[in-house]
# Entry
Amino acid sequence: MTAGTGGRWPTVAPWLGMVARLGLAAVWLYAGGSKVTDLAGSGRSVNAYQIFPYDLAMVIGAALPLVELALGVLLLIGLATRLCAVLSAVLLVIFVAGIASAWSRGLRIDCGCFGVGGELAAGQDPSYGPEILRDLAFLALAGFLIWFPRTMWSADMAIFEHK
# Structure
């Protein structure tokens, strides 16, 4: 899908897409990698949001880093880019909703986005606004990839260029 048939856009979009794809891949790889060594801690981080029963929060917390790593690897190689972008967008919307929910309910937690979060120590203040803005920026990258999934140096491009 391209914006118009002429101009520079058909040439520029795959390069911008590559930057968005690699940027989002780095986010998922870092987020998943920072949590994968402490899956129980990641479960406690999910539990801190007080949305799910404890056992379900622990399962979500254990699975989330693996999902993040899988998305990161697939985006890194550029395979199933649109699907990965859609899944990324869904996760990011859920993350924004979770952070907004914690904020609106007066919880004092670390989101756990890039490591094991949980309740903040006395004297620490949450940074919900910047966390939401950061996730909205990541959502913009995912949105770009939903509309323009064919990116340079990607498995998708190699597969579909040879058909």
Notes: The CA atoms of residues 15 and 99 lie 32 Å apart. The chain has a mean pLDDT of 93.
